[in-house]
Amino acid sequence: QVQLVESGGGLVQAGGSLRLSCAASGNILSIVVMGWYRQGPGKQRELVATVTTGGSTNYADSVKGRFVISRDHAANTVYLQMNSLKPEDTAVYYCNARRGPTYGNYAYWGQGTQVTVSS
Question: DSSP per residue over 27-86, as a string?
């Protein structure tokens, strides 16, 4: 089992910044990829950014150049630095951790943290 606890959401004006954190605990050695997804009002959940244990990153086109994902292995925490925020970034942001093929690529989710960007 893997437990994920998110923090750092809130209300910010357009153009501002926020940093989300996601602390993982449990069987973290089995995790191969961690990332952030979001679900805006009336929308489907979508990928924001991921980072592998090797440090490879992947971003949605809509956040490239504005968001940075990073992972602190010692602290078992993944961060999402969000800059130049736009109203369309308003969503519930979910942390995700995926285990490797040995564990069936099973994915865990955090409880979500609300990010609201005002215009």
Answer: SGGGEEEEEEEEE-TTS--EEEEEEETT--EEE-TTTTTTEEEEEETTTTEEEEEE-S--
Q: For 44-87, what is each residue's pLDDT tens digit?
A: 999 999 999 999 999 999 999 999 999 998 889 999 999 999 99
Classify residue 11 by its DSSP letter.
E
Amino acid sitting at position 115? V
Instruction: Determine the straight-line distance between the first and last CA of the chain, rounded to whole angstroms.
Output: 40
Q: Rounded to whole angstroms, what are the CA distances from 38 to 28, 73, 75, 87, 103?
A: 22, 23, 23, 14, 25
Pairing of strands 77-82, 107-109: unpaired
CA atoms of 101 and 117, how far apart (whole Å): 37
Task: Express each pLDDT in 7-24 by its tens digit.
Answer: 999 999 999 999 999 999
